[in-house]
Design goal:
31 strands, globular, 362 residues, 5-stranded antiparallel sheet, mainly beta
């Protein structure tokens, strides 16, 4: 059994000012703004030897993290308590992952520069082995992202030029939905939480047309809604930056403005109105409460600590500030019950943050 180095940190009680000051000086503790509503404590830290991690995802009971690695031909299943990890061999440059919380199955993309090598592995924790391997069905490009439907019976596959929704319960696998574009590259796709709609981030390849997030009805194949934002010039080609809120009432996408500056845009799905914009490059929706975790991108004057993590009410105020990373935060992921937040930064560490109970400061 392998192990990733883990360092625990003591719980910091924010009413003991002297202890907080000591930990801040030693750069060990978390800096909590006086206006913050909640206290989050870093409970674990794992050093990854500067290996780049493309994606993180929790297992259903929140005891393990799957790490989609780049530059290492494996996916690692990290035990949060012990720091030990299990390696699942893969092939290719980077591995995208999605761990379904109902079926418990982990989907892994073997990313390859050669499209005929692109495939999806289904790993079953109970059997500790890969139980299915699905080959990509066209040669338009390597798979960029995957997403399970709610119950873990269907997989959404996206390669930039095409989208396929597979029913993996059938033999052979049935393609429920297929979208192909020969002359127009999509930036990202996301399946709605109720599995009835598909959001597609579209740049349109036309400077006269604003990039848009189009919402398609999966049964009819018709575009039923379209979301745009004035001043946007393109959408980044990253799956995590087009996503639905857990309730399906908000859409978020990362756009760049005419100056090439990026910001996260949030729309109300019912009214199609923009709720707010945030200078962030990655977010994570809280699974049970009306909060998001997001990184902080400096503005043009260099103001803002991109190493920090904010927890804020959607459309409201920041309720917690998490500091400690020494490099830009790339990936954020809440545990299924929302009590812990995992983050990965280019400082080479994965950190686990836990929200303290209301009586923790008594």
């Amino acid at each position: 059994m392998n192990s990733i180095q883990k360092r625990y940190k003591p719980i910091v009680y924010w009413h003991i000012v002297s202890i907080v000051m000591l930990y801040l000086t030693m750069q060990i503790s978390i800096s909590i703004d006086a206006q913050d509503t909640f206290l989050y404590t870093e409970i674990a830290r794992f050093d990854t030897d500067w290996t780049t991690i493309a994606s993180l995802d929790w297992n259903p009971d929140g005891t393990q993290l799957a790490l989609g690695m780049c530059g290492v031909e494996e996916v690692r299943i990290l035990n949060i308590e012990s720091g030990d990890y299990q390696a699942i061999p893969t092939q290719g440059r980077c591995a995208e992952i999605d761990w379904n919380k109902v079926s418990g199955r982990l989907a892994i993309v073997e990313d390859s520069a050669q499209c005929y090598n692109s495939q999806v592995l289904i790993w079953q924790p109970q059997r500790q082995q890969t139980v299915h391997t699905f080959e990509k069905r066209n040669c338009r490009g390597s798979i960029q992202s995957i997403q399970w439907n709610a119950d873990g019976t269907q997989l959404l596959i996206f390669d930039g030029m095409s989208v396929q929704l597979w029913d993996i319960e059938t033999d052979p696998v049935e393609t429920i939905l297929g979208i192909n574009r020969d002359d127009q590259r999509m930036a990202a796709v996301a399946l709605s939480p109720d599995d009835t709609q598909l959001a597609l981030a579209d740049n349109h390849n036309d400077p006269e047309i604003l990039p848009s997030v189009d919402v398609m009805d999966i049964v009819s194949g018709e575009i039923v809604q379209q979301f745009t934002d004035e001043g946007a010039s393109s959408l980044l080609e990253l799956q995590d930056f087009l996503s639905w809120s857990p309730e399906g009432n908000i859409l978020a996408a990362l756009l760049t403005d005419l100056g090439g500056r990026g910001s996260m845009v949030f729309w109300d799905v019912e009214s199609e109105e923009r709720i707010f914009r945030s200078r962030s490059s990655t977010i994570a929706w809280h699974p049970t409460e009306n909060y998001i975790a997001l990184n902080v991108v400096p503005d043009d004057a260099g103001q803002g600590a991109y190493k920090d993590i904010f927890v804020r009410e959607i459309g409201g105020d920041v309720v917690a500030t998490l500091t400690g990373h020494q490099g830009e935060v790339f990936v954020l992921e809440w545990s299924p019950d929302g009590t812990m937040l995992a983050s990965f930064s280019d400082d080479g560490t994965i950190r686990i943050w836990e929200r303290q109970s209301d009586d923790s400061d008594e």
